[in-house]
Amino acid sequence: MPVLVVPDAEGGRLLPFSGSTVGERSVDSLATALAEDPVTRWVWSDTAAAYPPVLAAGTRVARCHDLALTEALLLGYDGRWGEPASVAAAWARLRGLPVPADQPPAEADERLTLFGPAPVRLPAGADPMQVAAAVYADQLDRIAATEQPARFGLLVAAESAGALAAVELTAAGLPWRSDVHAAALERLLGPRTSAGVPPQRLAELSARIGAAFGRRVNPDSPADVLGAFSAAGHTVESTRSWVLRKVDHPAVPPLLEYKKLARILAANGWVWQERWVRGGRFRPEYVPGGVVSGRWATRGGGGLQLPKVLRGAVCAEPGRVLVVADAGQLEPRLLAALSRDEAMTAAAEADDLYAAIASRSFAGDRARAKIGLLGAMYGQVGGGAATPLAVLRERYPVALHLLEEAARIGERGGLVRSHLGRTCPPVPEDWAPWDAAARSRGRFTRNFVVQATAAEWALVWLALVRTGLATVDGAELVSFVHDEIVVQAPVESGAAITELTRQSADRAGRLLFGATGVRFPLDVAAVSCYADAG
DNA sequence: AAACGAGGCGCC
DNA sequence: AAAGGGCGCCTCGTTT
């Protein structure tokens, strides 16, 4: 039986969810009480607020139901995306009271000082336990009333499990060798300089750019660079790298090099290290449900965008290994499973789906098969995707039809859903289906069905891996980026965890789609350094 | 001085 | 080869 949990300053209150108030008890320590019962699903308002103190006290929770995340999913399902989703708001809607706005999330730094759950703003006289019970009961009814209750229930469970994993990942952080990072920065940029002073390599490149133009140019200013090219007789539409690469001018090579290095300095330089690396770990804050498609976001440090050139700084700690598992070609595989296109499912039985498609329709030209398939999922119509798209439409009509139908619904301002029922946001009030807006919306909904389904597959995968890890001493999740999981574990359990990630991927596929021919092969490597994976 | 949009680029 | 989906976050340059 699920148990409702209402944290308070000292501990909290617990109530088995039976429809009555019988059996409520107060505990001095939630961590102790929750640790005594490793099977129960704990129902609470907000995992991000309730779980950190419990985890900090040493208790890992196996399962929960996050009322706020579930409320957001249910509101979205009804086309009410973005309405306040806190328990207080859900309760106010149930009672016909004014709905309080969601509180903005506390800054990460702020949260470290303000330890403990954020206050739930309920009207005076409302008992938080009764509110939680009422909202939970209502949510169960609404889940049961969806078109596919079993699927939506799985979505809610996965979203809630993800919230637990996110708190654990935020607490754990990613092993980070600051010395290795600093050495890489010095090799690329030169010795560290004080704030506002460009490092040696950037200064050199800046001088070369100025020499090539015959005047001083600020490479950080697109307007200045554009003006310099114009004065030199080159009309360039922007200063994007791929545009500049086509321009024949001596300033281009140092400019491209400058952009690359300046980016590393700004995004992941010495200042970044001081701000975001603590105790040998890089600590982004993971935000489940932070993206409309159900992907996670992170707050702080750009946690989902670690540049590949710096991944050498991610090193397993002594006696341990990093198991890096990546679900390759996830989106086209999910397209096959979603659409049940037989020909594409046959291709998805291969380890390399793009190669399988290429060998059947593109005379083995894998690159063209990939361009065509990505173009189909992203809504590209012209360019190099046009011809491969026509070939795919001929050969995989069922899969392509699913995408084109999603696009058509979007172009008309309609809603689409993922496989488990996550629903895209509605168009704004003032939206009108004029050409460009309709096409843009069509590309969004076309991509949404695939990206959101990929996100939920990955969430289920993560939840299964997390559950499996509970029985491996010393194993911890240290990174999750859309379709990649990194676990740090004692060297001797590397093989078992590799196997766990593979089995979990298979199970995730079966949980979402039942028995299909679509396989979800992983690239898994047990390494001592992140840079050595993949 | 602070807020904001645009341009740009890292990741998936 | 070409520029289509989702983000976070930097700098620049303008507006408030």
- Major β-sheet strand ordering: 3-2-1-4-5
For the biggest sheet, the summary is: 5 strands, mixed
Helix segment tally: 21
Low-confidence stretches: 108-118
Instruction: Please tell me what the overall shape is.
Output: globular
Portion in strands:
5-15%
Number of domains: 4
Distance between the termini: 43 Å
User: Overall mean pLDDT score?
Assistant: 94
Structure, explained:
The chain has 534 residues and is α+β, with helices and mostly antiparallel strands. It has four domains: 3-145; 179-273, Taq DNA Polymerase, Chain T, domain 4 (Up-down Bundle); 284-328 and 456-532, Alpha-Beta Plaits; 331-447, DNA polymerase, domain 1. It has helices at 30-35, 47-56, 67-77, 87-95, 108-113, 128-144, 149-172, 178-189, 200-213, 222-231, 241-244, 252-268, 270-276, 330-339, 342-347, 353-361, 366-378, 386-395, 397-411, 435-469, 494-513, and strands at residues 3-7, 12-16, 25-27, 41-44, 63-66, 174-175, 277-278, 281-282, 285-287, 297-299, 320-327, 476-480, 484-490, 522-527. The strands form four sheets. The protein has a five-stranded mixed β-sheet. It has a four-stranded antiparallel β-sheet with strand order 12-13-11-14. Strands 6-8-7 form a three-stranded antiparallel β-sheet. A hairpin with a 4-residue loop joins β1 (3-7) and β2 (12-16). The chain is globular, with a radius of gyration of 26 Å. It binds a DNA duplex (12 and 16 nucleotides) through residues 218, 220-224, 238-243, 259-260, 262-264, 266-268, 290-293, 295-308, 330-331, 367-368, 371, 374-385, 443-444, 446-448, 450-451, 454-455, 481-484.
